[in-house]
Design a protein that fits this description.
122 residues, alpha+beta, 2 domains, two-stranded antiparallel sheet, 2 strands, elongated
Length: 122
């Protein structure tokens, strides 16, 4: 940045700070409040605006914007202590009659823009 501070970048190019407030807020809301400063900066660069990550961070702090962490759910679940399920069959899958042993598995994954769920019951 050649010794210039991040906050001087927008004044050098005559782009008003209020325009950045608007653009940052718009990108932030379109991303469902997930994008942080780095991704917002990438969107602005794609739109032709040269802006530093420090400026975006500074403006987001001024605006009170904080992105939702991708790991928020994982962090939330850490506070719960889940009981580990025991192996009741001990890998003995031989049944004397029908409907004595049932096993199931579930997987969820994203394919393009859709979420698919697969549930297998044996």
């Amino acid at each position: 940045m050649n010794g210039e501070s991040a906050s001087k970048l927008y004044t050098k190019h005559k782009i008003p700070k209020s325009a950045f407030y608007h653009w940052i807020n718009q990108i932030f809301e379109v991303s469902n409040q997930i994008y942080g400063a780095k991704k917002i900066r990438a969107v602005l660069i794609d739109q032709g605006y040269q802006v530093s990550p420090e400026l975006i961070t500074e403006l987001m702090i001024e605006m009170g914007l904080e992105s939702i962490s991708k790991n928020a759910k994982r962090e939330h679940l850490k506070q719960f202590h889940f009981e580990k399920k025991h192996n009741l069959l001990n890998n003995n899958f031989i049944a004397d009659a029908p409907n004595q042993i049932w096993c199931s598995d579930f997987i969820s994954f994203r394919l393009k823009d859709k979420r698919l769920h697969l549930w297998l019951i044996v």
